[in-house]
Amino acid sequence: MEEIFPYGIIAQINVKAGKRDALIEILANGTRKMPGNISYIISEDMADENSIWVTEYWLSKEDHSASLQIAAVQNAIAQGREFIEGFGHRFEVTPKAG
Fold first, then answer.
1. Residue 4 pLDDT level (bands cut at 50, 70, 90)
2. Which of 1, 3, 23, 72 lies 20 to 30 angstroms, CA to CA, from 42?
3. Using CA atoms, how far apart are residues 81 and 93, in angstroms rounded to an integer?
4. With the CA atoms of 45, 56, 31 and 19 taken in that order, what torsion angle do they form, in degrees rounded to the nearest 10?
5. Do 28 and 21 meet the contact criterion of CB atoms below 8 Å apart?
6. What's the CA angle centered on 86, arms 76 and 45, to 5 degrees?
């Protein structure tokens, strides 16, 4: 049997002024049931009121890719797009402990 290696993403999303709470709510509602997801955390950037960080951990990179085809996730992306100014840092990581 092939071993599954965990996969993670830590990404910064720059949000239009005053729209951070709305985007957080949309993302939180659209990412509740995703097969293969270990953790999906949305955090406010303490230094920038127009920025959030999304930290995702998955059983595999393939599970993450498959999640983008889930109707609720696609709907969240479509709804949230109008609140997104752009994207900042994005890191792909391999979780090792925790």
1. low
2. 3
3. 25
4. 20
5. no
6. 85
CA pair distance 77, 29, nearest whole angstrom: 11
The whole-model pTM stands at 0.91
First and final C-alpha spacing in the chain = 24
Q: Which is nearest to 89 in space by CA: 38, 45, 27, 39? A: 45
Indicate the residue type of 20: R
- Chain segment 31-72, per-residue pLDDT in tens: 999 999 999 999 999 999 999 999 999 999 999 999 999 999
> Across-strand partners of 64?
none
CA distance 71 to 64: 14
Q: What is the Cα 65 distance to its own chain's centre? A: 12
